[in-house]
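Honest question from a wet-lab person: if I give you the sequences of every part of a complex, can you actually get the arrangement of the whole thing, not just the pieces? Trying it with mine:
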Amino acid sequence: MRKPFNPEKELLNYCQHICHVHKQTVRQNKKTGTWYWDYPAMAAICHDRECYVKRASYSHYPQKKEFHRVLEKKLLTLGEIGKRSTRPGKRNNIIGNCAEQHAANIFMKQCDEDNLSNLYFSKAMRPRTKQIIDYCDNCKDIFPNL
Amino acid sequence: MKYSESYLTNHDIDWFGIVNGVYIHVASAGGDIPSQVNDIERLKDIHRQISFLPDIYTNEAIEYNESGIANILSQDSIGLMERSQYIESFTAMARKGFVSFDRTNIGDPNDNRYHLVCKPKDNKRKPQLDGLNTVKTNSKFEDWKEDLWSIWINS
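Yes, you can. This is the full assembly:
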């Protein structure tokens, strides 16, 4: 019988993987823009309620990215994707940048999930140092379980 | 070409500079970086050079800002973070001869306070490296007393 995973331990493993690839990428002199040339600022895991299925991602610009239609609709309520949200009294990050939003997008597309309420998240972690970071206002407004 | 605002926000960039003859390494942690070092091709070239630099100090020759590190570790709410993980990338730079700093308030990219993580104890040997620019800070690094281990770096 499958055992549920611990989201934070999975996230830690993912961040260790990022750090390993980062070192190799710089040493191997890969072209600029290669994944993980610079450490991502943040990483996160999106998972189901029972912790059997997960998808991980990291903070990056949503260039040419097609978001799942449900997630895209929600993102657009905050403003234009790829631009800062402009809500008074909130920390207005760039919409579509966050690790949580990318992880959720992959999860929804690959696992046929249409309901944002069914998405659960690990903490957000800084890969370089494994520090835990608070969720941003955009993500708290997008995902009901944050 | 300069890094875009979005790229800076999304990445934890290693950047390097010289302050009063002291070679420093700084982790950006999703915040801004000084205009003097904000040049993609130049910084990539520096990264490549540094990746091949030999260690000129051993682990035993590195000293740590223990109070600063303890403060960071005390903020870990789930107990997953370990000292060894936090210091790893900074120690690697100190072994190559850099005084290594981290952004203190990583929740606020506009807060340009940094704390020393570690540095070579004697700080006499310099990395053999071309292309580093001088950056402005509120410290001249003339004294290594602990109360000077938190600095401001102008963007």
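Two things worth pointing out. DSSP finds four helices and six strands in chain A. The helical segments of chain A are 7-27, 69-76, 99-110, 137-142.
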